[in-house]
Amino acid sequence: METPSHSERVRSLYQMLFEMATGNFTFRIRKSGNDDQLDELAKILNTLAAEMQLTILKTGYVTPHYSYQGLVQMTFVLDQQFTIASLGSNISLILGYPPEMLFGIAFHDILANSSIALWNETVKEAETDKNFHATIQLIFVAANRKLVPSFCTVSRLLFTDRIFVSSVTTILQDSFADQIGVSKNTAPNPSDSQLIQNVHDYILKNLEEPLPTVKELSKLFGTNEFRIKDGFRHFFNTSVYQFYNEERLKKAHLLIQQTDIPLKAIAFMVGFNDYNNFSKAFKKRFSYSPRALNRNDNQIDTRE
């Protein structure tokens, strides 16, 4: 077997960290056989992922994979005093603040302390350079106090004193984020969580295939139909089919946005044998058809 290059090995370490961040603790890095520091890091990450998976399952919870990412633009327009004069509608999605809370406040008020010095230097340069343009990494403080790092383009708008700050941020999308958990009146069962975790992971890895019946799933995982049905209601507040359908439509939406794959091929890739059925299901879920999603700029064409 060909030994992976240094860059490939480093990339696999980055991928491992991303997979863990998205809740996928089943991903593992294969050793290269070089027995060097990169192999040692791979071993540490593999061990950490296994321990995290085991510990979380012992608590009786499942770890859903936040499988679908979205690139969302974050935009601010600042006045001469570098206070927020206008902002994009996606700010709330990324930082969690109501737009009216940010309007009129100093931009540095939503930055982490570690970014203040860099922002002050940027302000000094922007004040004296009419053609100012720079890319810097800033760390924002979200409404929930979490830190959101982002590379930002800071530039002065032509024929005005306004400053334009823009960045593209990756967010993790999960329609079940507010539902995952267990009933307050029921103690989580580690064996049930392990079972539902396995079924959950199996479905996500096989979205292009028709969903097996619950009876078939129960045979596959050596259990009964009730445990699977009850487990999905318990942990996800949804049925097995609803979970499967939601996930494959989310995957289809992402493929339409970020690839040039023909729509009929995408329908087939997410388990639909008939494009018309796919289109109806897609429109029911997102309130617009697959063809209405402009693939160049990800905007919705409402003319259809």
Q: What portion of the residues fall into strands of 2 or more residues?
A: 5-15%
Q: What is the count of DSSP helices, taking H or I runs of 4+ residues?
A: 11
CATH superfamily of the domain at 68-173: PAS domain
CATH architecture of the domain at 68-173: 2-Layer Sandwich
Look up the CATH topology of the domain at 68-173.
Beta-Lactamase
Residue share in helix? 40-55%
- Sketch the major β-sheet: 5 strands, antiparallel
Spatially, the strands of the biggest sheet line up as 2-1-5-4-3
DSSP summary, beta strand count: 5
- Overall shape: globular
Q: Alpha-carbon distance between the termini?
A: 52 Å
Low-confidence stretches: 174-185
SSE-based structural type: alpha+beta
Write the layout of secondary structure elements.
Layout: H1 6-21, H2 37-58, E1 68-78, E2 84-87, H3 91-95, H4 99-102, H5 113-128, E3 133-141, E4 147-156, E5 163-173, H6 190-205, H7 214-220, H8 225-236, H9 240-258, H10 263-269, H11 275-286
Antiparallel strand pairs: 1-2, 1-5, 3-4, 4-5
Helix pairs in contact: 1-2, 6-8, 7-8
